[in-house]
UniProtKB/TrEMBL annotation:
Lineage, uppermost ranks: Bacteria, Pseudomonadati, Pseudomonadota, Alphaproteobacteria, Sphingomonadales
Gene designation per UniProt: kynA
Name the record gives this protein: Tryptophan 2,3-dioxygenase
Cofactor annotation comment: Binds 1 heme group per subunit.
Reactions that this protein is recorded to catalyse: L-tryptophan + O2 = N-formyl-L-kynurenine
Functional pathway: Amino-acid degradation; L-tryptophan degradation via kynurenine pathway; L-kynurenine from L-tryptophan: step 1/2
Length: 244
């Protein structure tokens, strides 16, 4: 089979008929389409970030830092795009959303298996989130695999140990000597910073649209989101700054 078969169209290659038929509003209200597109796009970007993090972990495990930087930089750029998407969703008013919110039933972004998988792959491994995926489902299997596998933090910390640096604080205090590790750490902080920004903007958007109502999936809504703002994937890389 050739890489570029004759007659392949743009729509064929991107499977546009399947992609563009995946938006199936359950109401006849105009704004439900935006809600679906925003969240489907988010899931596509999460898929790409997982693809990049998987590559970065494998590269770091082989001490191939430069190409790992590229993959991690791509992750943080995608995060910026995802954060900006909340601005688009915020064009939906509380009245707009309340008109179709009932059709969501108990579905919620809180149940996104890919988002939890990404947290696990970064190193935020809270096993409680396994319970939000059905037993035997692909989402639960992927989450369990991510929980069991070395995270980005695990891979980076193992690379530091292999190189002979006693701690990340040592890496930062002598950044010229440990420049490859120092750069790796800063790429990871970029990701953590962007994740915090995404969480904050998500919270503001939710507060703007539904206030303090409970989430559709049964979470505490804005209160739950506020409780996540201090989560860090790489807390050691933040705390060492106080000691520099």
């Amino acid at each position: 089979m050739t890489a570029h078969p004759a007659g392949m169209t743009y729509a064929d290659y991107l499977q546009l008929p399947a992609l563009l038929s995946a938006q199936q509003p359950l109401s006849d209200l105009h704004d439900e389409m935006l809600f679906i597109v925003i969240h489907q796009t988010k899931e596509l970007w999460l898929k790409q970030m997982l693809h990049e993090v998987d590559l970065a972990v494998r590269l770091i495990e082989s001490d191939e830092f430069a190409p790992a930087y590229k993959a991690l930089a791509r992750v943080s750029r995608i995060q910026s795009v995802m954060t900006l998407s909340w601005d688009v969703l915020a064009t939906m008013t509380p009245v707009d959303y309340s008109r179709f919110r009932h059709v969501l039933g108990t579905s919620s972004g809180f149940q996104s298996a890919q988002f939890r998988e990404l947290e696990y792959r970064f190193g935020i491994k809270d096993p409680r989130y396994l319970d939000y995926q059905e037993g035997g489902s692909e989402g639960r299997a992927r989450l369990q695999a991510a929980l069991d596998a070395p995270s980005l933090w695990d891979a980076a910390d193992a690379a530091r140990a292999r190189a002979g640096a006693a701690s990340w604080l040592e890496v930062y205090r002598d950044s010229d000597r440990w420049f490859a590790l120092y750069q790796l750490a800063e790429k990871m902080v970029d990701i953590d910073d962007a994740l915090a920004g995404w969480r904050h903007t998500h919270l503001l958007t939710v507060e703007r649209i539904i206030g303090d109502k409970m989430g559709t999936g049964g979470s505490a809504g804005a209160k739950y989101l506020a409780s996540t703002l201090t989560k860090r994937a790489f807390p050691e890389l933040w705390s060492l700054r106080t000691e520099l």
